[in-house]
Amino acid sequence: MARAHPQFRFAWVDIEDHADIADAFDVETFPTLLVAGSDGTRFLGPLLPHAETLSRMLSALQPPQPSSLDVDLLLAVLNKKPAVFAV
Between the N and C ends of the chain, which has fewer C-beta atoms within 10 Å? Predict the structure, then answer.
């Protein structure tokens, strides 16, 4: 998926290992996907775990909306320790 969408950086946050940064999102369904960047949040919610579904969603993303403080904090952690969350 990363090769097909090089404009995105993919990271995996295991909510059991990193509950401190995942708690703010009230994740109830797995997997939950966050697509966000410095320009804002484009998607946050559950997504069926199928590569084709993810690819279609990434190709049809909505314009970014202002991110919440929680999203900004998560992105800061991902940027600070990218190797920990590498896919």
Answer: C
Domain spans of the chain, in order of start: 19-85
Q: pTM (2 decimals)?
A: 0.81
C-alpha 81/C-alpha 44 separation (Å) is: 21
Residues 6+ apart with CB under 8 A from 77: 21
What does each of the 87 residues of the chain score in pLDDT, given as a tens digit? 888 888 888 998 888 888 887 777 777 788 889 999 989 999 999 998 899 999 999 999 989 999 999 999 899 989 998 998 888
Helix or strand run (H / E) with residue 77: helix 69-80
Q: Tokens 């969408």 belong to which residue?
A: 5
Alpha helices in the chain (DSSP H): 19-22, 51-59, 69-80
| Residue 49 neighbours by CB under 8 Å, 6+ apart | 31
